[in-house]
Design goal:
homodimer, alpha/beta, UDP-N-acetylmuramoyl-L-alanine:D-glutamate ligase, ten-stranded mixed β-sheet, 13 helices, 36% helix
Chain lengths: 340, 340
């Protein structure tokens, strides 16, 4: 897998906090009510930006942009701040209620039904980034309405690496806007079914080729999330596939995709020296390692409800799991004499 | 991944044909009518035993056991014999008609509908193996009624490695018999959905643990076929995951699972010296390489209709694809300093 041209020139000096480059994420901050075959929770901290931020916070300082209501209080803030996540750009809407999602998963956790979605403070959300968040060199646009994603993107002219997620709702109801947003990012992170729906192509290879044909500008790398099967990375001339980490018990898949994105983007940001050395390219080997870290973070996410597992995760656990993933995917290529 | 105890003692001397150990396969020999988004065929050579035999024939001599009708004639036989497949145990049923299957695939080829199944000569099939087929040390029980699978197994007391496939029909209608058959094999090769259905467990890790708990005797390795996502190998203490080879165009998935089994079992049989050296164990590294060869053969199978692609495949193409698979799954594990 060769490199993909992405990592733009630095608008130097880096905006760093201490030793760390900051990552800005915009997306939902939510209360989730979730029922799975293994139990249920009536109200837990959730939302794409939260799951992303917790996962990415192991690698770099993360700034969360998004609205919350009066019901978002100290205990929720504490989870983020304990992980040194910057909450200055979390907008408190007086009299508002935090975004709420209720869902239920089927027995093998491969299907889920949304029982209730209350946009609440998201209905009139207009992202306003602080100078610090605008100065981030790495940006993740979690799954929100694509106009909003673009307005955040435009506020971050210094961003050198921008990744995004989306969902079937926007593919179906805001396709033109979504395509504009996609044209402004370096990496698209979507479920494989969404990639097929977005492109009307029956398989990943064709779907990725279609998306690359829309540019430039546009993504130079596509990460296809495949749920329990793992994830694949497609670049204009390369493919990398990685199975999900095998777990005896998947308790709650909510947020797995955002934790994947957090590990993936976080790892890339943490290897900025490698990005700089590659001179405007995204090295294929770096992307693969980022996939492994994303996969590891996603696997921890699903081991318990909501943010519970990732919130108490340690560096050693992450390293150990990436090491296991590496072991579980390795094979030697010993030929045998074939008969013809 | 450590070894799994499977490869039994040799009933020496090996039954070899020339330089090659023979593999016996029992299963359907069929005419298939298939419609996919890329075209259709009204009548083509198919059946699990045929797809398996063509794939495995690159590695060892294969003996096919199964019934055909008067309509199975020289052109069909020729495809097998050109690949040095032994057809002596193909039973011609006078006045009978060959097994027939008609199916249609959905746009992304992940769903298929069976439109017609005519058992024909299979309805009263009673496998009778020749002394040569009985003497095979490697046996594959393709997807047929589990009583029949067992009757073949019992005729091959010298078999040192036995693998099997099955399907949802037998899980639902002949479960007790199927469990008895499973207890007599070394390796179970099933779709992941079938593994879940068989065990009523929601994920692969739990499903495999359940199956291992039924033994001994029973399988020491389980290959879970995951369609477009690839395949996973589970042993009592190990896991290996391999993505499918990414293809721009999947034309016809029919027989992919049997081609996978043919590459997998064929590679193992061809490495009999390695099996012997392991002293009654199935080395994990050997199983992984077998998975890669199975994955490569399956990927060729789906590139064209029926047996068309595998029938003209070359050793160099197989080696090249396994090499590409190895490249597409490799990643280095470079750590970054984490923040906590």
């Amino acid at each position: 897998m060769s490199s993909a041209a992405v990592w733009g020139p630095s608008a130097a000096p880096y905006h760093r906090e201490g030793q760390h480059l900051s990552i800005t994420v915009v997306g939902s901050i939510a209360f989730d009510a979730v029922k799975t075959p293994f139990g249920e929770r009536e109200r837990m901290l959730g939302g794409a930006a939260v799951h992303f931020a917790l996962a990415a916070s192991f690698f770099e300082r993360v700034r969360v942009v998004g609205p919350v209501g009066d019901d978002f209080a100290e205990p929720e803030l504490a989870v983020l701040e304990e992980h040194a996540i910057d909450t200055d750009d979390i907008e408190r809407v007086p009299g508002g209620k935090t975004f709420f999602w209720r869902g239920e998963y089927g027995w093998d956790l491969n299907t889920r039904e949304t029982l209730d979605t209350q946009l609440n403070v998201f209905e009139h959300f207009e992202p306003k980034l602080s100078p610090e968040s605008r100065a981030s060199e790495v940006l993740f646009l979690a799954n929100i309405q694509p106009d909003l994603q673009r307005r955040v993107r435009e506020q971050c002219p210094q961003a050198r690496f921008v990744a995004m997620d989306s969902m079937n709702l926007w593919i179906e109801t805001a396709r033109d806007s979504l395509l504009q947003t996609i044209a402004g990012v370096d990496c698209l992170i979507l479920n494989d079914a969404e990639l097929r729906e977005l492109t009307a192509k029956p398989n990943l290879v064709q779907a990725a080729r279609e998306i690359f044909s829309w540019g430039p500008p546009g993504p130079a790398a596509i990460a296809a999330k495949q749920g329990e099967y793992g994830a694949a990375l497609l670049t204009p001339d390369g493919f990398f596939g990685l199975p999900a980490f095998p777990l005896e018990a998947v308790v709650d898949p909510t947020g797995a995709g955002d934790s994947f994105a957090g590990g993936f983007v976080g790892y890339l940001a943490a290897r900025r020296e490698e990005l700089d050395a590659a001179g405007g390219e995204l090295p294929g080997d770096l992307l693969r390692r980022a996939m492994a870290y994303g996969t590891a973070l996603a696997s921890f996410n699903v081991e318990e409800f909501g943010t519970e597992r990732v919130a108490r995760l340690t560096a050693e656990e992450i390293f150990a799991r990436v090491g296991e993933l590496s072991e579980m995917t390795r094979f030697s290529d010993v030929r045998v004499p074939l008969r013809r």
